[in-house]
Amino acid sequence: MNRTTSKIRQDFLNFFKEKKHIILPSSPLVPYNDSTLLFTNAGMNQFKEIFLGYKKTDYSRVATVQRCLRTGGKHNDLENVGYTSRHHTFFEMLGNFSFNDYFKKEAIEYAWELLTSQKWFNIPKNKLWVSVYHEDDETYQIWKDIIKIPSQRIIKIGDNNQNQYDSENFWQMGDDGPCGPCTEIFYDYGNNINNTTDFFKNNNHRFIEIWNIVFIEFNRISKTNIIPLKKKSIDTGMGLERIASILQNVSSNYDIDIFQDLKKNISQLSKIKDLNHPSLQIIADHVRACAYIISDNIIPSNEHRGYVLRRIIRRALRHGHKIGIKDNFFYKLVSVVIKVMGDTSAILKQKQKKIEEILKLEETQFSYTLEKGLKILKFEIKKIHNNILPGETAFYLYDTFGFPIDLTADVCREKNIKIDYNEYELVKNKQKKQSIINQKFYKSYNDNIIINHTCTFEGYKKNHTKSLVKYIFVNNKSVKKILKNETGIIFLNTTPFYPESGGQIGDIGEIYNKNCSFIVKNTKKYGNSIGHFGTLLSGKIEIDQYIYTKINQNYRNAIQLNHSATHLLHAALRNILGEHVNQKGSLVTDNYLRFDFSYHPTIEIFQIQKIEHMINMYIRHNFLIKTQILSLEEAKKKNAIALFENQYNSIVRVVFINNISIELCGGTHTKRTGDIGVFKITSQSSIASGIKRIEAVTGKQAIYYLHKKDNYIKDLSIVLKCNNSDIKNKVENLKNRISCLENQIINLQKKEHTYYIKKLFKKCLDIKGTKFLTHIFYDYEHKFLRVIIDELKKTLEKTIIILVNVINNRFTFVIGITKNLLNYITAINIMEIIIEKTNGKGGGKKEIAEGGGIYTQKLIIVLNDIKSWIDEQLNKK
């Protein structure tokens, strides 16, 4: 029965191909048509709309090998991964499906033939058991009469005392919708358990479910009411890893060929040689999951799918740390995953470099906080007495060190400690509420105004209109008129003023007639209406009065240049850095543009220059910028980029720049790319893990920026007394000169230390065989006090040293004590005496402590008191 996982995968597909099934590829891990799922978690996900009757299909029989991920919700396997023999985050689901074609009899016969036929998997028939829904007599009879399974190996699942449809063997997609009974096939690992009631135990390792066949024949209307479907379907699933463990004659999924190779490679990097160690299994599982998640263009972040990825990575890194792997290792395993996954690794090969770069960067960023966080967790665990870690501690680790709660739980689980999840949620929610309060504190003036009115925006084609005044607000109160010198908000029935949205700032301009002038300083959205914020310079404006509007065209033009340039920047980034670059935010003003996007690696200067070059090339081509109003579905067919998909209406505005950029956008744009003139990136930075920011200027602002840079270089050459072309050499010479002078200073300081050490050595007092030394420096560098103490302790065998430095009526001190005195006197003891009598602060360890204070006049008295105290302590010994 021993065969490779790759062969098992292919044999499954070949079998169903012979049974007239269409072989379809795995859908991505990120469901493209289901916002209810973070990740694809079952083979049926890609056919959900067919099962629901929303979508027609050209085929009635299908087989797939589906990539799946289960890390949350109902299917949360993450905590069990590595500690059981069956659970994984990433796994492959073998499935065959029938859409109004064959049903129960054929589905069961196909499964039995594949599993037991000598031509295929050749599993002994007496090793297989089945379960059926307790009311599904038809399925029971098929197994008993047609397949000829003995009745004692057919287990009915269900309880007549509960809701008849609440059963493990009655499958349902949700609270309503397609559902039906299912039958499961189990492999029996041993005959030493004769009582079949053990079949129902959750921790039963004898019977392993390998295949589930769902008969979708009902539509659930309510909790207790289901009706038959006109068209019946079959949905099956068999875990590749589970069936491989059986066919390879091993008792654990982690012993199959795929994981054996992975675990051996991980073991070579660690101090663990036992290939069944849970940490090796966890890392092997997690690197597979991470590689495939990243291949679907997900990057680590603090939200949504990116956070799931980060949790998995950090859990793997913690186990790497646990088994003694000191250096970055996780990214090195990607090549091994590609090797062991065989034919299914094509997508990983294409994106190997990107996957490795992201994993390496994430590991580098987390390595410091991992070690520090684990130390804190270890310290906190020592303090607890009831085997329950406070939820406040778990939240602190998450909030400060980025420890996902399941990572903390993983550590606690190994020590039989539980987490107070109730307290964790309370602390977490408390911080959320405080965050909301803080956000409200900074909200703008439009928060308290609610307008039940729609204003027509005409600014795409017009820069001035004749409009009707609908509402006026002064001091956030509705009024009938606004008077001279008053500041307020005016709402019109129509306007050319673009309201701040989508990253583009609002227009400015004037609302006027022959008797009044209202200067518009900003424009914002209020629901479906648009508010014009500003000050009335002359006359008065009243409700129901007709007035004229006029935007500041120069201001609008400058904004439009930057907005169109933002679209070009987005396109260039995806072209040069990769299509996985996704916009995370933007700001478009009249002076500059800012663009935030997802990207993990460092952006090199040559890449910045390539981006600039590409955008300026687009500008020189002077492409026409067009807009179209389309349905959301039409926009998707044109591959338009939708940045915040759930915020769009069914009808959307799409901006086209040749075939370079197609984006859903409500903002205003210039007519041609050539209008932008020139594009120049002024800065690029990292604003969060995996999130980069680029700022840039266009048009005359770009010219001003370049002139400013030229002037700066010219001023620098004057200061350095050289030509522009010689600045680099001049700076390098100065740098070498400074380095030389610093070395001279270090040598002088060493001589100074030697002088002080000799001088202080002579000042040592003898107290009952122990050397005692105090000295007060004035205007000395504090860091050198510790250097001097370390040198003196090397020479003096049994010593207590207190060095003080006074600067501007404040003092700092360092206390050093040799190890052979710590049973009687510690540096902490002496520090506490000093800070108590001088109102100071301090900290440290038994051998060395330091601190400071302000009462310098008491120092001599305090040092004498310490001398007497030491004498007393030494007498006691």
From TrEMBL:
Single GO cellular component term? cytosol
Give residue ranges for domain Alanyl-transfer RNA synthetases family profile. 3-708
Origin: domain of life: Bacteria
Example GO biological process: negative regulation of DNA-templated transcription
GO molecular-function annotation terms? alanine-tRNA ligase activity; aminoacyl-tRNA deacylase activity; ATP binding; tRNA binding; zinc ion binding
**According to its UniProt record, which reaction does this protein catalyse?**
tRNA(Ala) + L-alanine + ATP = L-alanyl-tRNA(Ala) + AMP + diphosphate
Q: What is this protein called?
A: Alanine--tRNA ligase
Q: Which gene encodes it?
A: alaS
